[in-house]
Write a structure and sequence with these properties.
- By secondary structure, the protein is of the alpha/beta class.
- It has 9 helices and 5 strands.
- The protein starts with a helix and ends with a helix.
- The chain has one domain (30-210): 3-Layer(aba) Sandwich (Rossmann fold), CATH 3.40.50.720.
Length: 212
């Protein structure tokens, strides 16, 4: 790490994009031509993720959409050009590694990694490592995915990592011993904590790149 760059790091601030809650994906993209670009969109077969996948593909990008059950996702993405389905379970580290290895083996660059998948208000449960399910799926899974795909992101020479979040992070906090000892059934609060961690996740990537 570059200690000089680290000591001069500044707090991030909002970027006045001119877009708002009613802006559509197509409006945000404008007239950009994404021919030759590659995007991976988790959760890209439902909700915001599906619309993101559709608009990116229609603009010329090749879009990879991973899903725990690709057969179920297939119907949702039918008719979208240049869209490829993959298999991924964000609660399973070996599944994440497998997807990354398969992608890297193609030799492709990755211009966009869009983390849109997530679970919300799930009953308290844990993954095989003992981590709470929302934290494991929505935060740890995406962190590992970005780390494993880093060589492909670097190859793009200007890649973007996007983490879909909400204002819910304002209501979250980080509790001591949260990672392994959480017992409460307050699903909303756990959801807000996850939103805050997604903010930390993007800031950590930004700070890492600034200090290289």
């Amino acid at each position: 790490m570059n200690s000089h760059a680290s000591s001069e790091r500044k707090n991030q601030s909002a970027i006045p994009s001119g877009f708002g809650p009613q802006t559509t994906a197509r409006e945000a993209l404008g007239n950009l031509d994404l021919t030759g670009k590659f995007a991976l969109v988790t959760g890209g077969y439902s909700g915001i993720g599906l619309e993101t996948s559709r608009v990116l593909a229609e603009a010329g990008a090749t879009v990879i959409v991973p899903a725990r059950t690709p057969d179920k996702a297939r119907a949702a993405v039918a008719g979208i050009p240049r869209l490829e389905l993959e298999t991924l379970d964000l609660m399973d580290p070996s599944s994440i590694d497998g997807l990354a290895e398969r992608f890297l083996a193609t030799g492709r660059k990755l211009d966009m990694l869009i983390n849109s998948a997530g679970i919300m208000a799930a009953p308290l449960s844990r993954d095989a490592r003992g981590y709470e399910s929302q934290f494991a799926t929505n935060h740890l899974g995406h962190f590992q995915l970005a780390a494993r795909l880093w060589p492909a992101l670097e190859k793009a020479n200007g890649a973007r990592v996007v983490s879909v979040s909400s204002r819910g992070h304002r209501l979250g906090g980080v509790e001591k011993y949260y990672l392994m000892t959480l017992q409460r059934e307050d699903v909303k609060r756990r959801y807000w904590e996850w939103k805050l961690k997604k903010k930390f996740y993007i800031e950590s990537i930004s700070n890492f790149l600034e200090c290289r």
